[in-house]
Amino acid sequence: MNTRRSLAVIISVLTLCTWGVMMFFLAAREGLIERTGKERMFREILPGDIRLDNWKGIYVNGKFIGYSSTRISPASRGHLIESSYLLKFRLFDRFQELAVTTVQELDDTHRFESFETKVTGLTDISLKGHRSSGQMVMDISFAGNTYRKSFPLSDDLILDQSILQTYRGTDLNVGDRYSMRIFNPLTLSMEEAVTEVTDKEDDLFIMETHFGDLISRSWVDRNGLVLREQLSNGWEMKLEDREAIEKKLARIETDTVDLISDLAVRAVFPERDPRRARTMRIRVSGINLDNFTLENERQHIADKKAGIIEIRTVTPEPDGIPSLPITIEDMKPFLLPSPWIASDDPSIAALAEEIVGNERNSWQAAQKIASWVYREIEKAVTPEFPSAPMVLKNRRGDCNEHTVLFTALARAAGVPAQMCAGLVYTEGGFYYHAWPKVYVGTWIHMDPTLGQHVADATHIELISGDFPDQSAIVLAIGRISIDILDASREYSLLDGNWREGPVQCLLRKERNLN
User: Fold this and answer.
1) How many whole angstroms separate alpha carbon 100 and alpha carbon 83?
2) How far apart are alpha carbons 363 and 350 in whole angstroms?
3) Which of 288, 364, 455, 466 has the CA that lies 20 to 30 A from 134?
4) Separation of alpha carbons 230 and 224, rounded Å
């Protein structure tokens, strides 16, 4: 099993969240929506006695992958919304399930009161939220830890996305336009979505929803029911009979989607060994380049209109490497802890001190940390949202685990570090991957999953930042195309441990390359 096994599991999960499957991104897809403009709030057009029991099949490029169901019924103090998702697919050559259940309470005017969400299978996450004195109080529990977030909650922030996926109201007309602001509690920002009735096809209204660069199309009948919804990346939901869905579920293990192959961006590499690539020149299409961090120390947009990007490996200048600890003002944000990059955890701090020892050269310290992570963390699929202390305890994981642990150790040692998400080339295509970069006079990309002190030129950074920041990568999944124009390995990388041949990664123990 080779490098493709080091793909970022979180990227696959983020793909699923575009359908409201990943409740960890609750308010972005399954959450709280505020109507803007002069139109009535969506909750005001919902009938007071609304009852729905709605089932939809979920498809990827025409293949059945699971279902969603939404049930709306009266409750003692208003309305009860019960929604569930079940996805079955192959990931890393293993059959996986992801189940999500949400129960939400609304008052008699469809105003949000409380919710509880549980995610099981591929990862385990629990979320609970309630209205309290004009605030939304939400507890997020995963990896044995619980984090509380509170933020202002107006009466307009009430809509459950599962209602919007199920019901759009009656009396629709071509040209009707609805603007909504979606609050994302992870980024603590409001993001606007626009829904418009764009056309009418037979007796069905066609509605388009724009959320950033994501576009979905919905087909709605005269009764306001959403019969079909389609994303531009090949994902689709169709209103179906429950019995038909259950029959498809029984056959799914023998005919299901392999998300790894589905997400791969196929391309032909001109060199024999992509791990030795020092430079690469590519043409990117299908995405808005402005949504990604394609311009940095090692990447340059040579022709924006044509989508031409040049990538070269970067190594630090010996005379410009700062000593530890690095106290440059602009670098302070990249030394701070987060719920995932827990660089202030005592176990992380103690290990960083042990690995670095008396080394004051920041680049040498970063290489010591990268070598330790590559050597000590078993290469294994662990489809979870990892935190650095959890990785240190378990000593196993894929590229996410390697990256988050390295980043936390580097920050604890005083080396500014960031996580990167993007693509890396292997076996006939680019696969989604995660790796870190460190500031040692300039930003240097490293890859402790592959044992590279300097990441080869086939690493294409799309997004840098913590896991919530990386959610923007969904704008590339299923849409990006890459043509490799040329590549070269003019001279070997500076990793003294480099050996010819493939680097074996996940689902087996590390091979001895010496």
Assistant:
1) 8
2) 19
3) 466
4) 17
